[in-house]
Amino acid sequence: MLAAPLFTDTRLEEIHRRLVEYYGRPPEREVWDPLKQFIYSMLSSRTKTEISLEVIDDLEERFGSWENLRNASIPEIEDAIRAVTFPEPKAINLKAALEQITQRCGSLSLDFLKGYRTEKIRLWLERFDGVGVKTSAAVVNFSTLRRRAICVDSHHLRVTQRLGFVGKSADARETESRLMEMAPAEWSPEMLDEHHTLIKLHGQQVCTKNHPKCHACPVFDVCPAGAGG
């Protein structure tokens, strides 16, 4: 007698398919080296993408190298990143992280991480002050490391909770773990990146924090907070 097939949760695939139909395929990401992605992700928390991109470009132009950024004073760094949210603690954490990377590795580079297992990379990154699961996921998935991970930002967390994939008290780590369980094994790192981008876009444009546009939502009928709420 054949064993009954295991239940396969295809909800994430269905959500992804509908969002692609609604928004179209996101533009291909400009993939950076791990250090640049690390710096960007440390600064971009709770900051609009366009502002974060302007700041990272300004840092490169102003300092010329990440070593010069590392060697700058905290007031100089704080002034350079003034446009992001919480520039004071971010300046402190960023300078400390760049100094510690240099001390631990002998040079200011994260290229050596490509020889590590994904989980080891994330644990290594999360030892720095100001670096959590969101930043470590961004570095391993968005950078040239291109590993399997899902970066869960505030938009992703909100949308995932409303869809009922996790409880309302779930944090980014728990949410990513659940989504990785649901994601098809054949989804590449690039596909997981695309999924993050689509969910983020949906959270920004339709499934907003205070006034979600449920009437325009392409997943309204399968959303407990919408159709079933």
From TrEMBL:
<dbReference type="InterPro" id="IPR003651">
    <property type="entry name" value="Endonuclease3_FeS-loop_motif"/>
</dbReference>
<keyword id="KW-0540">Nuclease</keyword>
<dbReference type="InterPro" id="IPR023170">
    <property type="entry name" value="HhH_base_excis_C"/>
</dbReference>
<keyword id="KW-0408">Iron</keyword>
<dbReference type="Pfam" id="PF00730">
    <property type="entry name" value="HhH-GPD"/>
</dbReference>
<protein>
    <submittedName>
        <fullName>Endonuclease-3</fullName>
        <ecNumber>4.2.99.18</ecNumber>
    </submittedName>
</protein>
<keyword id="KW-0378">Hydrolase</keyword>
<keyword id="KW-0004">4Fe-4S</keyword>
<dbReference type="GO" id="GO:0016787">
    <property type="term" value="F:hydrolase activity"/>
</dbReference>
<keyword id="KW-0479">Metal-binding</keyword>
<dbReference type="InterPro" id="IPR011257">
    <property type="entry name" value="DNA_glycosylase"/>
</dbReference>
<keyword id="KW-0255">Endonuclease</keyword>
<dbReference type="GO" id="GO:0051539">
    <property type="term" value="F:4 iron, 4 sulfur cluster binding"/>
</dbReference>
<keyword id="KW-0411">Iron-sulfur</keyword>
<dbReference type="InterPro" id="IPR003265">
    <property type="entry name" value="HhH-GPD_domain"/>
</dbReference>
<feature type="domain" description="HhH-GPD">
    <location>
        <begin position="43"/>
        <end position="201"/>
    </location>
</feature>
<keyword id="KW-0456">Lyase</keyword>
<dbReference type="GO" id="GO:0006284">
    <property type="term" value="P:base-excision repair"/>
</dbReference>
<dbReference type="GO" id="GO:0046872">
    <property type="term" value="F:metal ion binding"/>
</dbReference>
<dbReference type="GO" id="GO:0140078">
    <property type="term" value="F:class I DNA-(apurinic or apyrimidinic site) endonuclease activity"/>
</dbReference>
